[in-house]
Amino acid sequence: MLGAVAGWGARAVLVRLRTPVRPPRAVPEAIVAAIWALLAARDLPPWWLPVPAAVGWLAVVLIATDVRHRRLPDAVTVPAYPATAALLAAASLAGPGPGLAARAAAAAVLLFAVHAAVHLAKPSQLGAGDVKLAGLVGAVLGAVSWSALLAGPVLAAVVTAALALASRGRTAPHGPGLLAAALLAAVFPAAGALAG
């Protein structure tokens, strides 16, 4: 039920963007509800649950905008930075300690820098919105583990390649792949992950 309410909030954000997205009836509500129901069924530490719940909500909003308009709006990504930092700081304090927060911060900088370098070298291949999103994704992947940070970009590239094939050669958005990697790592962390 809470997931459906959060999904309604995602719909409200989508229709109020400068370039609005009008999703089909009940779709954001159903997707966020399904993600949150999956989280409820998982045996994750309570201090970690807000992180994948927020990533799931963010994924619904940003994937919808990136697929529809090939944009990751600053109106969503910029406020997500302090929100993600607060959630990861709270998880670090309530969970394994400062190691999680330090790893998340370092990973955010690293993934942001790698994407920024690619954007500067080939701006047509990777947009500025993807660079901004990479910092958020890096923080979540790094909070999970260093191995998640290594696997995440590979999964993101696979998803982007699959979208390119499905769109018959048109440039595919990279945001869905980044968000899928972050969500999968957050919902299904490997055994021993999330350590400080």
Question: Topology of this protein?
Answer:
Blueprint: H1 2-16, H2 27-41, H3 50-69, H4 74-94, H5 98-121, H6 128-144, H7 146-166, H8 175-187
Which descriptors apply to this entry?
196 residues, mainly alpha, 8 helices
Q: What would you note in describing this structure?
A:
By secondary structure, the chain is an all-alpha fold. It has one domain. It has eight helices and no strands. The protein has helices spanning 2-16, 27-41, 50-69, 74-94, 98-121, 128-144, 146-166, 175-187. It is globular, with a radius of gyration of 16 Å. The mean pLDDT is 93.
Could you give a quick summary of the protein structure above?
This protein has 196 residues and is an all-alpha fold. It has helices at residues 2-16, 27-41, 50-69, 74-94, 98-121, 128-144, 146-166, 175-187.
User: What would you report as the Rg, rounded to the nearest angstrom?
Assistant: 16 Å
The 3D shape can be described as: globular
Order of helices and strands: HHHHHHHH
Q: Quote the beta fraction.
A: under 5%
- What is the helical fraction, as a range of percent? over 70%
Unreliable spans:
none
User: What is the structural class?
Assistant: mainly alpha
Number of helices: 8
The total tally of domains equals 1
Averaging pLDDT over every residue, what do you get? 93
Number of β-strand runs: 0
First-to-last CA distance: 32 Å
Largest sheet, strands/sense/barrel: none
